[in-house]
Amino acid sequence: MSLKRFYILLLSQLILLVGCHFKRQTDWSPSYDIHSKKPFGLYVLDRELGQLNGVQNVTKWRKNITSHLDRYEPWELADSGALGCILTISPDLRWDNKSYESLHVYINEGNVCMLFTNDIPQFILDSLHISLNGGIANFFSVKLDKKLKLCHNASVVGKSSCINADMGILGAYFYNFDSLKVNVLGYVYDNDGKKYANFIDIPIGSGHLYLMTEPVLLTNYYILDPDFRPFTEEILGFIPKNAEIFWKLGSSIDEDSASPLRFIMSHTPLRIAFLLFIFGLLVFAFFTARRRQRIVPPQPKNTNSTIEFVRSLSNLYEQSDDINFIVKNKIKYLLNKIRDEYHLPTDQLNDDFIRQLSVKTKKDPEQVRILIQEVNKHLNYSFQANENDLIRLNRFIEAVFI
User: Which CATH architecture has domain 27-255?
Assistant: First the structure.
């Protein structure tokens, strides 16, 4: 077995070994992407958000808040009787001052904004006169050792609603705010039973700003779980009826484009296949880069054999001594030449044909007449031509066409 075949066989065995021992594991990393079917993706919410009672339309975009509001001017919806609601679900907000100023104007005109995030820029917290604690739980832990209790405010929802959650919950909460200006809609309880506000409503002008510190509650995991789904629906129930939702996707103001390999790298089987393809391509290039080229022997130059062919054909006719056959073929080639080059019919070699051929060849009509008479003699009369007839016919042809 050659060395090349050995390495190919070894590579095939490695691919089979990886495929046989590959075990698909659940990816608990928070993606907050509407195309992601991972537990902490937003695929289910994207499919069901438009089914909320009274929701008129759901518009999604990835650009920053300012570019969107400047383009659509959603605060003008208040004049038409329709209410707008900006929705953001993200682990953090990466907004600048201009984006927040545009959002503040939007809310002040009577619209609503709902921000579900674990982290809010400090300048926004300062302008709202509130503080945010990063969380009771361990930030790097997907599942808590002990479940945290989360509840809605019974006075707002109309009934007490609580869940005990542990997957992806951070326990972040708000503090140092004016309870007369801030409405608390939900709480999170620590292990000692002390409650902290994690869902608040801040009136701004004629509108409202809702802040929630647990965006994970709107992901696939909690919506598909029948024990958590009612709690999640009650959170989304704060969206005003007959509202037009503007869903801001992602958290970065620079998130205008995605990598072409995003779909492949986001699925483990496709990612493994892609990496194996790249590895195989590198192995192929390594073993074929030093391939020796086969020596090509020099080829002799082509020689002009036309003269040799004519000489051989002439000798063949001379040896056959069939003058009549040569004359008939010479006449046939002559008529074919007239048809191809001068586009004249040769079925009737009469005076009209002689006149037309004389005009086409620009030769003396008498010379043309002598040639056609000689041709008609061989075509219309059956007799055995001799060498003199052949020489005379050839002389007449050369007089007209050469």
Answer: 3-Layer(aba) Sandwich (3.40)
